[in-house]
Specification:
The chain has 124 residues and is of the alpha+beta class. It contains four helices and three strands; from the N terminus they run H-E-E-E-H-H-H.
């Protein structure tokens, strides 16, 4: 999921079968939606994200202290989110062995499989 789509996630996007989103990139053209089926890990991540929100007044999964979206729709910038992410990644690099992976290892292990895309169910 693209960063912008992730930051636009809203609790109403959560359905019984997964997280369904209208990708921002395709909203004005094909209108293609994507469904991310629930897994134990995805449920746990969403639960953690909901618990970590600074306020419980926003429909957004990721919101700032005032409940607003991190993404500025006019500029496409997400300065607050980018600062949080940068700090998190610096901590990950300092506290774990993630930096030992080479780009060739990443490509060989993680990027060799085709992306799995689930079809939308036809409505009768």
């Amino acid at each position: 999921m693209a960063r912008g789509d992730l930051l636009r996630l809203r609790v109403p996007d959560f359905a019984a079968d997964g997280i369904e989103i209208q990708r921002h990139k395709t909203a004005g053209s094909s209108g293609k939606k994507s469904l991310y089926p629930w897994t134990d890990d995805l449920r746990a991540a969403v639960k953690d994200a909901l618990a970590a929100r600074p306020v419980d007044i926003s429909p957004r999964l990721f919101c700032n202290r005032t409940g607003e979206c991190y993404l500025d729709e006019e500029t496409g910038r997400a300065g607050g989110w980018d600062s949080l992410w940068r700090g998190f990644m610096e901590r990950v690099m300092a506290e774990t062995d993630v930096s030992s992976a080479s780009p060739s290892t990443t490509k060989r292990i993680y990027r060799r499989k085709a992306e799995r895309v689930l079809p939308l169910k036809a409505k009768g």
